[in-house]
Amino acid sequence: MNFQPSITKEEVARLPVEMYRGQIVVVDNRRMIDGAMARLSSSDIVGFDTETRPNFTKNQHHKIALVQLALNDVCYLFRINRLEGFPPQLIDFISDGKVIKVGLSLQDDFHSIRRRTAIEPASFVDLQKMVPAFGISDISLQKIYAILFGKKISKKSRLSNWDADTLTEAQMQYAALDAWTCLQIYQFLNLQK
User: Fold this and answer.
1) 153 with 104: CB under 8 angstroms?
2) How far apart, in whole angstroms, are the C-alpha atoms of residue 153 and residue 19?
């Protein structure tokens, strides 16, 4: 099945805003990791994304602050900056081939992850490589989601401080929504095959 190949910014702007309605679990201490990883590891597919504090000056680089892993009903936000780096369980999960992890523009995420830890990601699906087979030429998450679901993803919190002591509700919603929509797109497209 083929979908409309692209959508304009103006068309996206007129769409209703999508909201994440699942549970959000902020994993910001080592005691919470095993429970989150048990649930994620028992799944077949998870949505994936990362967030890094934006750079506003030349030659300034920040390390990845957040890894988001979403199921249909819950999204885990791993605060890498609060966990003092990547926990071994998360490294094992990212490099494990058993669970499919779905994201967008994954090379950027992998580059950010490798700035913090040596890791070889396994079983990742990049939606930018998947959607052309369905006739979609737009490769941004916002536009792909708009084409498939007729709703827009707000990007207002994208350039916020992901290293902040406490994430705002808007940041948590944004982060969860990005990972969750990757999962929704993948599942929807697989039903179209």
Assistant:
1) no
2) 8
Do 101 and 48 contact (CB within 8 A), yes or no? yes
Q: What is the 3-state secondary structure (H, E, C) of 127-193?
A: HHHHHHHHCCCCCCHHHHHHHHHCCECCCCCCCCCCCCCCCCHHHHHHHHHHHHHHHHHHHHHHHHC
Q: Which residues in the chain land under pLDDT 70?
A: 55-61, 156-159
pTM of the entire predicted model = 0.93
- Distance CA(36)–CA(124), nearest Å, equals 19
Phi (first) and psi of residue 103, to 5 degrees:
-145, -165
Q: Which helix (H) or strand (E) holds 66?
A: strand 64-70
Measured over the CA atoms of residue 170, residue 176, residue 177 and residue 178, the dihedral's sign is: positive
Q: Say whether 92 sits in a helix, a strand or coil.
A: helix
